[in-house]
Amino acid sequence: MRDRSAAPVARAGRSPASASLDLIVCCSDGRHLAALVVVPLRGAATLPWALLEDGAGHEAAAQRLAREHLGRAPAWLAPLGVAGEGRRHPSGAPLSLTWLALVPQGTPAPEGHAWVPVHAMPALPARQQPMVAAAVAALRDRMDLVPIAFRLLPPEFTLTELQQSYELLLGRRLHKASFRRALQAAYLVEPTDAWRSEGRGRPAQLFRYAPRRRRGHRRPVRFELLG
Amino acid sequence: MRDRSAAPVARAGRSPASASLDLIVCCSDGRHLAALVVVPLRGAATLPWALLEDGAGHEAAAQRLAREHLGRAPAWLAPLGVAGEGRRHPSGAPLSLTWLALVPQGTPAPEGHAWVPVHAMPALPARQQPMVAAAVAALRDRMDLVPIAFRLLPPEFTLTELQQSYELLLGRRLHKASFRRALQAAYLVEPTDAWRSEGRGRPAQLFRYAPRRRRGHRRPVRFELLG
DNA sequence: CCAAAAGTGTTGGTTCTACACCCATGG
DNA sequence: CCATGGGTGTAGAACCAACACTTTTGG
């Protein structure tokens, strides 16, 4: 089905690679954030990576890389960073591009891959070591500008799932009634006509992310986040 | 003193450039954000740029580029983006790296350069055209995580200047007493023993940015910024 | 009945912003 | 004097988080 050897988009040795591309794919397992690692038959685990001969189309390359390692397109894909300073890739690629992808909760890890909670990462190649933490920090930083919490869920989700997604990113528990009231006021979701019966209790209604125009909202001055 | 021809860090033609590097340098003129443009004797204006043979050390290269165009180190320097998709540099460099620098209000534009308000940019090369808007958006987005407003000021500044800096970034007027109360509560600045007499009225005390440890601050759920 | 989902009312706290006012100081 | 800087008190609005409660609906 897939080549387990982390199929580089460009093979080393043809022409000097201009950049290495590493991908952090994050997913929620319901309780924690997890990252996708490649677990080869022998040898150490790595994050998905590739070499680029030509940096042009590196976004497309990131997309391709994500597809190859997931079997599907990610729900979200964004550049995480560029590094030229740190340890470079063994191939000698002078630039290291990092991309961050999100997939919905429940996405299975393909053969040769595993979801590993981000707080329990195995030893990774030196270049990749700091990337997971950077990814988590970036997710937390951007979660109120970008619908991160929604991309960790399938297109249709229950409000309880959404709340858990937020709790996971914020790292603390939220109050159910308050969460829903605030969500209501923000016009971020719309109900579908589908319901999901979870076993016992009343079935949960499914919602989808459908932000509506928000009226003029002026941002307050926020000093507290600086330090 | 300086070479006006936008002294590329690596000259085209020696070996294929691996990346182009563009720099947006922003500064406040007290009323608006302005960006540094290179104004050649003949031809169109450009943003400072360079070609990199080797992406390694591109941060150092950005530093160097900023120094060359400013005559001094910027107060802040951060990567803004990587693009491989759009129009590429005429040299054929496959990757386009963009860095964003800030310098304090009052920094003079060297010979052959000019500060241009970001809302009135001249025609730039196609590749550079969207960069200024992206830079402004990035500044607004990150201003409450990173001390952007402070980097637009000299190390010592008056509270009125700081408030103007915030007003410029937020795009609206703030209330003086409230601004200062909030600033006080955030332990972000410390007074120096210097005062500056501005003409009439009581002299203003100078402050410096000196954030102190902020106690455990839990972030509220923010839905309002999504949409 | 019970469990879970969905939603209402309300309350207490904090934050944001504004208004009005104070004093200090240099020209 | 007056303009400006620095600061206090306070008030209203908005927001946040929690508690308690009701209603709905499947098992």
Question: What does the model show?
Answer:
- Two copies of one chain form a homodimer.
- Chain A is α+β, with helices and mostly antiparallel strands and 227 residues long.
- Chain A has two domains: 19-142, Nucleoside Triphosphate Pyrophosphohydrolase; 155-209, Winged helix-like DNA-binding domain superfamily/Winged helix DNA-binding domain (Arc Repressor Mutant, subunit A, Orthogonal Bundle).
- Chain A is built from five helices and nine strands, in the order βββαβββααβααββ.
- The first copy, chain A, has helices spanning 58-70, 131-142, 148-151, 159-170, 176-186, and strands spanning 19-28, 33-38, 49-52, 76-83, 95-102, 113-117, 156-157, 189-196, 204-209.
- In chain A, strands 1, 2, 3, 4, 5 and 6 form a six-stranded mixed beta sheet that branches. A three-stranded antiparallel beta sheet of chain A has the order 7-9-8.
- Chain A is globular, with a radius of gyration of 19 Å.
- The structure holds a DNA duplex (27 and 27 nucleotides).
Strand-helix topology:
The structure is a homodimer of 227-residue chains.
Chain A: E1 19-28, E2 33-38, E3 49-52, H1 58-70, E4 76-83, E5 95-102, E6 113-117, H2 131-142, H3 148-151, E7 156-157, H4 159-170, H5 176-186, E8 189-196, E9 204-209
Chain A binds a DNA duplex (27 and 27 nucleotides) through residues 158-160, 174-182, 184, 195, 197-205, 220-221.
